[in-house]
């Protein structure tokens, strides 16, 4: 490089123009970033003094020079300055020039000093190092000033034109500053123009950070590959890993997408160079893999990091344990716990909570209690564990005990919980116990716990409300459920969608549609949280009660609330309109269903097939069946039952029997008890009793269990043909299958057996004794 010999008078004016404030309203973003970038961290933040100068001498020179330069630039005494800096053979060190320039405070003033130095400094290599140090200070000052975004880059171009080399700290400052104000192309130009020997780890990290944040991913990965090279000047370090992994663990990446395999591959590559993700990043990666159902990959990456020597914490293991719990993979849970012990990774309370929760969900309560006792008694302290069970662990165990019917043990555990410091029962504790006693039908005990909870000042939640309401409704105490809801609402706990859905469904089930509608209106008036499930419950109840106009009214309100009908609701409505014989409404529902993108299922088709078959439109029924098969849906026993029943009603037994035989051969759909009953009843009415009896044998061969209706139909046919001995045989079969006779059975047999003098047989039959055997 040639010695700089430009005169200050000739060049300072144009050079100083670079540092004049812009008239733009928008001040530079660089100024806003100066707080964060006041000193660019790196290995060469400031130059060292010369070997023959002590830091003390250097500091004295700096102080004297700054005092001379304090006045306005016009009043500088260049003679004194020259005598101080250049009178002896030892020119000022790069460190001296760096600090003198930086302490001038303003970039314009510093730049004038820089021009003076460039005119008087010795020839290379001293001039190169000294001017680079002084120029670094100018960049730092300019960066802090409210200047325009282009100012730093203009300074860089000026330095390049005048062959002033950047040192590493100045280069890193430029790359970061330009990148943070969006001048990515300019930042990359600065980085790429540098000599490869100057690109140390710190500078490469700065460049990678800028590239990734701006979406220049391929450029960043190219630099990263260079850093993985064992012969590279700047090797990867922990900062590199943090920058790259922080970027890759985002949900979305500007410029390019990454697969989990890509991320895992980079983690392992960093690991081979002794760089590992911290606990937060590793936990985040494992959680993401588990969320995407890549449990095996999560397992591998955690164990690979352990194998390569990474510092794995309990949190990362907990993330994997949680996933293994959801998969019920107890084998690998145990393996991971053993591995944690081998690696001296101390489990925390979350670890034990996950394991206990898993054991409880799999009904392995005794094992969960054993682990709980070990924690409580401190047996694990010798292994480095000194944690105590928290309220979450207690609640998990209490809930687990209640779910397996060990409510009393749950109560005792709650009392033990009270004795532990900092651990007291809360709303969840009581909810678990109340639900446990309610599930076994002990409603009074559940109510007692509810009142105890309130006496202790523990506020019940909407879950408490729903637990009690659900239990009362299931036991038929609907009025008590309403009273409980009103009481809770007076205490400030409002019912939610689950509360009203439970109540509405329960009142619909007992055909109290008026109360169901009243509850629905109350829910809308109260303005509480609504859910589609409430509308679905009411639509279903109204449809089953035949109140289709009211059901359609609720559908309108559902749509006003921005909900959509689901498949089940469409099926319920279609079935309701079929029962009302409103074919136009059925057609309208099917069209609306298709327009909404809700695909009909086998229930939809079976409902339509059954409707048209009962209406005698068998051709339409078969056409719908063909469409059902074309849509890829498999006909069920209900489908064939509807067709068989229709042909039986039309007196076409042959066609009905043909469909029956095709069920087992072509369609591979086994007939059920209902289909057998339809055929047996029809055959007996047509006096084809022998064929009906053969169907009884077929039921036995196919493992289909007959019921009381089956035998009633058969007894009618046997009576008409006076096949008394056969009747005795089937009376025994009825006892054998534990089919209790109903009033129809007794009416048929009493009239017939009394007429033929076999009342003793009838008495034995009623008492559950064999009949045919006594005849023998």
From TrEMBL:
Transmembrane segments: none
PPR repeats: 313-347, 348-382, 390-425, 426-460, 461-495, 496-530, 531-565, 566-600, 601-635, 636-670, 672-706, 707-741
InterPro entries according to UniProt: Mito_RNA_Proc_CCM1, PPR_rpt, TPR-like_helical_dom_sf
UniProt cross-references to NCBIfam families, sorted A to Z: PPR
GO cellular component: mitochondrion
A GO BP entry: RNA processing
Name the UniProt record assigns to this protein: PREDICTED: pentatricopeptide
Chain residue ranges for the region called Disordered: 36-57
